[in-house]
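The methods section describes the discrete structure representation at length, but only in general terms. What matters is that the chain and its backbone geometry are given together, residue for residue. For illustration, here is how one protein appears when written out as sequence plus structure tokens:
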Amino acid sequence: MRMLALSLLVTVVFAAVLPGRASSQEIKVTLLGTGGPPPAMNRFGPSSLVEVVGQRLVFDAGRGSLLRLAQIGVPLGNIDALFLTHLHSDHVVGIPDLLLTGWIVGRRTSAFRVWGPQGTQRMMTLLEQAFEFDIRIRRSHERAHPGGIVVIARDIAEGVVYEEGGVKITAFEVDHDPVKPAFGFRIDHAGRSVVLSGDTRVSPNLIRHAQGVDLLIHEVVVPASLRRTFPNAPADILERIVSYHVTPEQAGEVFARTKPKLAVYSHIVLPNASRDEIMAGTRTTYAGPVEIGEDLMTIEVGETIVVRRRNP
């Protein structure tokens, strides 16, 4: 009965994706990219937009994240902060686009703020050096606002990393060994809560931070999709890839232990994994509300949870 009651809280709507901010009492999440390292036109690199009380917060910046923001009409210069779960390339390759295009085209006038694990400050400093020529020309010739290319980057540790306007973001370590540290994030506002897993194997720390959360967005790996994509790859290499992610069966166990009002899969490894094989594995361990994320899917977390998919 409890599972039935929970399922009634979730409404799924097929609708056009329209720009707009969340109401003052809700958290709106848009999945900008739900894929992984391989290029896929239907699943861009991992990235999520969280809109809450007028703030636009981006988590990870995979391939094409800025294109997705443009697609839904978000002003490119109006991103309030970027949070990085870890520094694997598929989570950060979109940063130069957000940094430079948000400044040049989006006419950003305030600093580009980035929070991430150890190494984030150094990476951002080196990116500024790599694009020094372009930055200099844009400032002198096109009179781009000098404040918009300032970067404020912070290396973070576990704990509360952001508190502004009633929004609290907590970073917590997850287990993506040998990538250390790797973080998940919990966003809290006005009694609503969202957890983003980042990349992880089954993580007791994530389970602690996600207890009873409204929305849990979790990564997943489907071993069969790896074998289809790389049929000639050594078995031990494929096993290593699987070993620091979560299979659908394992994710179902995580959902059963955390009991979110809604679980959503994103960062699907690999993008060619089918809905049927993901759901079949999940249902062996979890019977509650779960959705397979799609690029530009929105989830509105308020008194009820509304999932909006793009029109076919």
About this structure: The first strand starts at residue 10 and ends at 14.
